[in-house]
Amino acid sequence: MYDYLIVGAGLYGSVFAYEMTRRGKRCLVIDKRPHAGGNAYTENVAGIQVHRYGAHIFHTNDGAVWEYVNRFAEFNRYTNSPVANFRGKLYNLPFNMNTFYQLWGVTTPRDALAKLESQRLAVAEPQNLEEQALSLAGTDIYERLIRGYTEKQWGRRCRELPAFIIKRLPLRFTFDNNYFSDRFQGIPIGGYTQIAEKLLGGCEVRLGTAYKRGEFDAAKTVWTGAIDEYFGFSLGALGYRSLRFESETLETANFQGNAVVNYTAADVPYTRIIEHKHFEFGEQPETVITREYPIEWRPGDEPYYPVNDDRNNALYERYRGLAEREPGVIFGGRLGQYKYFDMDKVISAALEASARE
Ligand code: UDP
């Protein structure tokens, strides 16, 4: 008899398992995949840590979470500075003085602001992503750097998307290409998998093991899979976006000179190319690149992004209602809570849940 059956060896499940094990509870962690780490999983290919399920860049404002992850890996000084390629021209992200210079040749914050203001759409309350983007960033940025990327990423028109998605993209009037404004940022040297493996070191783990209701004898269950899947999709399926990754090893030391290059035009089928070695300043003779193709999620695909529009949020609330009537089950993580969580938020949620327990 276990105290906790933890379904999913991703960050939420691993942190929860670690915290309860050190408090003397007996935990069993299962994962249908053959490895720990969930979507943060990294794998060594030709000496390069490859982010198998998409780029994971750790950033947080939470000093306690930063201190916590640093117990399980040493972090490097990587700073995310993606470059956008639109029809062969390169632009720095996030939108900052470098970008404004590249777009308009303006060299001062005052001229950049004047240019932006002349293009901004005047709406008091943006009703969708297009209005939000146009009122925030104006026509040029919207047309060249937002529209195509976003419509590929989400598979629908910007006019049909919720405004909040774009709030992740700040505007800056300094020459600062750091994508995140958090105090702490970095990549674990040697990859993310070691973090999950260290967290899970003290408890029983069965990888390659799918969940079957009633198969494992545990007082409580922690479910980090999709909440609608737990309930057998009984109220209907929640919407997700999925991704297809195409990776290649190339006989060249440096393919694109940056870890992340976004392709923002609608007619390029992928959204970005990741060159993994640059996350760790690698100097190997070869390189591994991954093209990221967003796809509509269908049952059986990996659900990467919850699509938090009104319909899905309302349906999620109904599943929450069912979840509240399952007292022995804790739902956690990006899929269990149907929320566009970053890694630091997943970790703090797991720490809070374990403290409550
Ligand atoms: N986005 C964009 N152009 C870009 C990068 C991002 O318009 O070059 C928008 C897009 O709507 C996307 C959102 O910003 O869905 C968040 O993107 P980000 O890359 O920050 O999120 P991630 O996919 O890495 O979680």
Question: Mind explaining what this structure looks like?
Answer:
- It is a single chain.
- The chain is an alpha/beta fold.
- Among the domains are: 2-36 and 200-239 and 306-356, NAD(P)-binding Rossmann-like Domain (Rossmann fold); 94-166, no CATH class.
- The chain is 31% helix and 22% strand.
- It has helices at residues 11-22, 63-69, 97-104, 109-119, 129-154, 193-200, 227-230, 310-324, 333-336, 343-356; strands at 2-7, 27-31, 42-45, 48-51, 58-60, 83-86, 89-92, 184-186, 204-207, 218-223, 240-250, 260-263, 272-275, 287-296, 305-306, 329-331.
- The strands form four sheets. Strands 7-6-12-13-14-11-15 form a seven-stranded mixed sheet. A five-stranded parallel sheet has the order 9-2-1-10-16, covered by helices on one side. Strands 3-4 form a two-stranded antiparallel ribbon.
- A hairpin with a 2-residue loop joins strand 6 (83-86) and strand 7 (89-92).
- Helix 4 (109-119) crosses helix 5 (129-154).
- The mean pLDDT is 96.
